[in-house]
Amino acid sequence: MRKSYSSEFKLKAASMVLDEGQPVTEVCASLDIGPWPYAWIDQVQKNTWARLR
């Protein structure tokens, strides 16, 4: 079963990378998640955040 994450959680993870400058690998480790932030970051940068909801 695939784990799902809330929009707020996804935005927080993306923000940790984009706004705080943390490496994606550190964000993944600190939040105990896989490489999902890459997709979330891409969507935020392309201004398609609505797709994450």
Characterization of the model:
- With 53 residues, this protein is mainly alpha-helical.
- The chain has one domain (7-52).
- It is 55% helix and 0% strand.
- It is built from three helices and no strands.
- The protein has helices at residues 7-18, 24-31, 37-45.
- Helix 1 (7-18) packs across helix 3.
- The longest helix is centred in the first third of the chain and has 12 residues, at 7-18.
- The chain is globular and about 30 Å long.
- It starts with 6 loop residues before the first helix and ends in an 8-residue tail after the last helix.
- The model has no long low-confidence stretch (mean pLDDT 85).
Report a brief summary of the structure.
The protein is mostly helical and 53 residues long.
Describe the biggest sheet? none
User: What is the C-alpha radius of gyration, as a whole number of Å?
Assistant: 10 Å
What oligomeric assembly is this protein in? single chain
Q: Share of helix among residues?
A: 40-55%
What's the domain count?
A: 1
Number of strands: 0
General form: globular
Q: Structural class of the secondary elements?
A: mainly alpha
Distinct helical segment count: 3
What is the H-and-E element order? HHH
- The overall average pLDDT, rounded, is 85
User: What distance lies between the first and last C-alpha atoms, to the nearest angstrom?
Assistant: 19 Å
Task: Outline the low-pLDDT stretches.
Answer: none
- The proportion of residues in beta strands is under 5%
